[in-house]
């Protein structure tokens, strides 16, 4: 009886694991939707067709970090919007994303949607905001890594 249980154990355990968990991505970011294809293109600004890599710092030392930001490492980048609409901020790791209007001060805008990046991508999170033309700052907080990758995603 023990022999039979040991023989069947690998079959039972393999059926308990979802198929997605057992299938590794052979080429992460290879099949991104059109709006996210810039994720693989490095850039220097937070824009829609390029991803920017930012050094992170201890959040306690980052000037302007909004109240309610998560503890840990953090990064900030200023950006401009020319055309009104819904825009997402994509992030490559677990964390908290805030967008504030203007060059300094202000309250974080309320997000209108949030979710994960596509399967088999290195995008971990996308938070969307309704933005009018103007200047903004994006903050990522609660980060664990020394660098964070962000990209602006138009709707």
Could you explain the architecture of this structure?
By secondary structure, the chain is mainly beta. The protein has 2 helices and 10 strands. The protein has helices at about 1-15, 20; strands at about 40-45, 50-55, 55-60, 75-80, 85-90, 95-100, 115, 125-130, 135-145, 145-155. Strands 1-2-10-5-8-7 form a 6-stranded mixed sheet, with no helix packed on it. The longest helix is centred in the first third of the chain and has 15 residues, at about 1-15. The model is unreliable at about 1-20 (pLDDT under 50).
Please write out the topology.
Elements (H helix, E strand, L loop, with lengths): L1 H15 L2 H4 L19 E2 L7 E5 L1 E2 L14 E9 L3 E7 L4 E6 L11 E3 L9 E7 L2 E10 L3 E8 L1
Provide a quick synopsis of the model.
The protein has 2 helices and 10 strands; from the N terminus they run ααββββββββββ. The chain has 155 residues and is mainly β. The chain is globular and about 45 Å long.
Q: Please trace the helix and strand order, writing H or E for each element.
A: HHEEEEEEEEEE
Query: What structural category do the secondary elements indicate?
Result: mainly beta
Strand content: 35-45%
Helix content: 10-25%
Q: Which parts are unreliable, with pLDDT below 50 for 5 consecutive residues or more?
A: 1-22
Determine Rg (CA atoms, Å).
20 Å
Number of strands: 10
Biggest β-sheet, characterized? 6 strands, mixed
Assembly of the depicted chains: single chain
The number of distinct helices, counting runs of at least 4 residues, comes to 2
Query: How would you state the average pLDDT, rounded?
Result: 87
Distance between the termini: 59 Å
Biggest sheet: strand arrangement:
1-2-10-5-8-7
Q: What global shape is seen?
A: globular
